[in-house]
């Protein structure tokens, strides 16, 4: 593990450190994006507003409350993973990346992790929209009919429990560089914040090209929140298209 500091301290310290990192990351990124998009003169914002409804204070407070709870839940499998990493019991590796094949694998592993995460998210998300399940597990996220950047982490505790363990378990089996793990965490956070922003930050030209056809953006996920069905994916439109649940982005 040369070159990467191993987090010190007993498990509880690692857990509380992770809770803090997750919370600070959430508050900083959601706060900055919320300010840039919702609190400035709309004329100055270089993005397309997806709704005329300004988020209410009550919605934002609800999103922050659930996101704080989620931070405590997500940190638990993360802390277990770090403990196991210290003992050498995971597939996470560190040190310099070896030549061209090392870099090819690094990119491949990043894509594979995103695809597996997207697949797990799509199917569990679809299941959570079943009538018998929705109110107990997923309704908290959908209280935001028009979400804000603060909704990026707002899940009912049951939903957070269902999703939080997936990537740490995958990291026990599929080799991934610790730098890739950190890069993926940044990508995941930015993706979640932008998809709930209520504003489309990507230019129309991108949305009409391969970028918009392959990737999920705010326009796509906003439709999921306003219609309560369809567009269940997380990063890619792949499963929505294959399963016929993709609402065409206008
Ligand atoms: Zn949903
Ligand atoms: Zn959402």
Mean pLDDT: 93
The coarse silhouette is: globular
Bound molecules: zinc ion
The tally of domains stands at: 1
Determine the N-to-C terminus distance. Answer: 48 Å
Largest sheet data: 2 strands, antiparallel
- Spans with pLDDT under 50 lasting ≥5 residues? none
For the largest beta sheet, what order do the strands appear in spatially?
1-4
Q: Explain this structure to me?
A:
- By secondary structure, this protein is mainly alpha-helical.
- It has one domain.
- Helices cover 62% and strands 3% of the residues.
- It is built from twelve helices and four strands; from the N terminus they run αβαβαααααβαβαααα.
- It has helices at residues 11-38, 57-86, 99-128, 131-137, 139-142, 157-164, 166-170, 178-195, 204-208, 210-214, 218-227, 238-243; strands spanning 48-49, 92-93, 176-177, 199-200.
- The protein has a two-stranded antiparallel sheet. Strands 2-3 form a two-stranded parallel sheet.
- The longest helix is centred in the N-terminal third of the chain and has 30 residues, at 57-86.
- The mean pLDDT is 93.
- The site of one zinc ion has 5 residues, from loops.
- One zinc ion (ZN) binds at residues 125, 129, 138, 142, 224.
